[in-house]
Amino acid sequence: MRLKLLATLMAFGFAAGTAQAVVTQKMIDDDAGETKDVLSWGMGSQGQRFSPLKQVNAQSIKKLVPAWSFSFGGEKQRGQESQPVIHNGKMFVTGSYSRIFALDIKTGAKLWKYEHRLPEGIMPCCDVINRGAALFDNLVIFMTLDAQIVALDQTTGDVVWKEKIEDYASGASASAAPLIAGGLLLTGISGGEFGVVGRVEARNPKTGQLVWSRPTVEGHMGYTYDADGNKKENGISGTLNKSWAGDLWKTGGATTWLGGTYDAKTGLAYFGTGNPAPWNSHLRKGDNLFSCSTVAIDIKTGQIKWHYQNTPNDAWDFDGANEFVTFDMDGKRVGGKADRNGFFYVNDAETGKLLNAFPFVKKITWATGIDLKTGRPNFVAENRAGDPTASADHSKGKSVFTAPSFLGGKNQMPMAYSPATKLFYVPSNEWGMDIWNEPVTYKKGAAYMGAGFTIKTPGEGPIGALRAVNPKTGKIVWEVPNNAPLWGGVLTTAGNLVFWGTPEGFLKAADATTGKVVWEFQTGSGVVAPPVTYDIDGEQYVAVVSGWGGAVPLWGGDVAKKVSFLEQGGSVWVFKLVK
Ligand SMILES: [Ca+2]
Ligand SMILES: [Ca+2]
């Protein structure tokens, strides 16, 4: 009898000497509803960032105080965009410069750290950030700025496997949190400003071995791989030259730099894709698939089941990389996406059919709206920066002012969806840019943009606003303005709360229904990362990483000057209710 029980326990993944199971696919599938762990970026692979926990609510939150804080230390600070994952008494949190720490969940004591050895020539476009790790079996897996994937033993921090995704000398890098779905490790790639071609790769998470790869630029071949690593053609993406003239598709960008979400109900992984390369749209007539799109991939076959292009023939660096968050609306599984281009989209999660689209920022100049019948934007033709070859000396095209700026109505900071309020909580920004085109030719490892720009503030008022958005009506139900541009993610809970961070250093909480701010805490540096919540021994915790940086100080023009007083940092804060 005892032997049989032991055998059963072993079969369920309990190892001798440890109290808790290793991370299984089933646990990851249940992550959104199971509150003791945070196993995935998005607090569930659908990316809703909703927790059923309600111990912390509008009444109790005045007793929310720090339980512990941990400094990432060293001389390395800069942007900290990481979401912690939590399992088996440990928090795994990544830091800038491809570092990862394992911490005791109760005390914050450091258990181990791994600092990836980065070569001199890395070229991340938008700061030396990382967005978090994935957990599978006994492994914690994260991506590095030199475009590698590293899998470490959760207990010891020892490297179990390491794989190169791409040559960093081409401008490729990797900073998203990997996605585990259907027993596969799914990853994207960064480097759209260098002409790196986007793709999604599926690997065996235990070994790092490739299973399939799917390019996100039309014309490139997809592959499947057998157990010995032999690759077999699996069809090209799209139809060669259908939406790209000439051969610019060979270095066409559309990188999958923010990673993806997955819905077990559809069996599809949803990856957003970045700008087509180069930025100068006059060089690449056509829609330039699958750039600035949501691409839905059947994870069993590695084939694109559907795509929806938010910005055809993009001329503004409106990367469509933003997360596609699936939810139920009118009895149907659909997905919401707040795009960099300023419009919020709702698509059928099975077919990609556009169901709704509306602005979530005040000023949009490049299009007057999205045609729900054709699914295409109504472009404002004169808001496309001019062709340099039309100028007298061919050196600079006509400059235009465009809103939003390329930093976006929303950028990398993930939104949250509450099935309780049926609202999305979108960290949004109001800003514009002057943008113009210049001649450019592709050179490996060199910036491949063919454009110049200056980010403009909207005036004296606040740039940021956390907005509660009704996906059905398109109404902004409430907003909390913020002086600096919002750059962190959002968490919402059954306690009817919304949590988000600000560059000014605050972690804030508001009533999810009214937007009334009910709590805030100064973390000591800007928050550009998404908060999480979980419970241990009947106590609810909230955690967030603090450390100002990311794309705004590097690319932000007038806005960067406006927020240059903000200090860098690097720490994780954990809160609970004082008894
Ligand atoms: Ca969970
Ligand atoms: Ca881009």
Summary, kept brief:
This protein is mostly beta strands and 579 residues long.
Q: Care to describe what's here?
A:
The chain is mainly beta and 579 residues long. It contains four helices and 40 strands. It has a six-stranded antiparallel sheet. The protein has a five-stranded mixed sheet with strand order 1-34-35-36-37, with no helix packed on it. The model is unreliable at 5-19 (pLDDT under 50). One calcium ion binds next to loops.
Low-pLDDT residue spans: 5-19
How many alpha or pi helices? 4
Mean pLDDT: 95
Bound molecules: calcium ion
Strands of the largest sheet, in order across it? 11-12-13-14-15-16
Notable traits:
six-stranded antiparallel β-sheet; five-stranded mixed β-sheet; globular; binds calcium ion; 579 residues; 4 helices; mainly beta
Structural topology:
Layout: H1 2-11, H2 25-29, E1 50-51, E2 64-71, E3 85-87, E4 90-95, E5 99-104, E6 110-115, E7 134-136, E8 139-143, E9 148-153, E10 159-164, E11 179-181, E12 184-187, E13 199-203, E14 210-215, E15 221-225, E16 231-236, E17 260-263, E18 268-272, E19 293-298, E20 303-309, E21 325-329, E22 332-338, E23 343-348, E24 354-359, E25 367-370, E26 377-379, E27 400-402, E28 416-418, E29 423-429, E30 432-437, E31 451-456, E32 464-469, E33 476-482, E34 490-493, E35 497-501, E36 506-511, E37 517-522, E38 532-536, E39 539-546, H3 551-555, H4 557-562, E40 571-577
Parallel strand pairs: 1-34
Antiparallel strand pairs: 2-40, 3-4, 4-5, 5-6, 7-8, 8-9, 9-10, 11-12, 12-13, 13-14, 14-15, 15-16, 17-18, 18-19, 19-20, 21-22, 22-23, 23-24, 25-26, 27-30, 28-29, 29-32, 30-31, 32-33, 34-35, 35-36, 36-37, 38-39, 39-40
The site of one calcium ion has 6 residues, from loops.
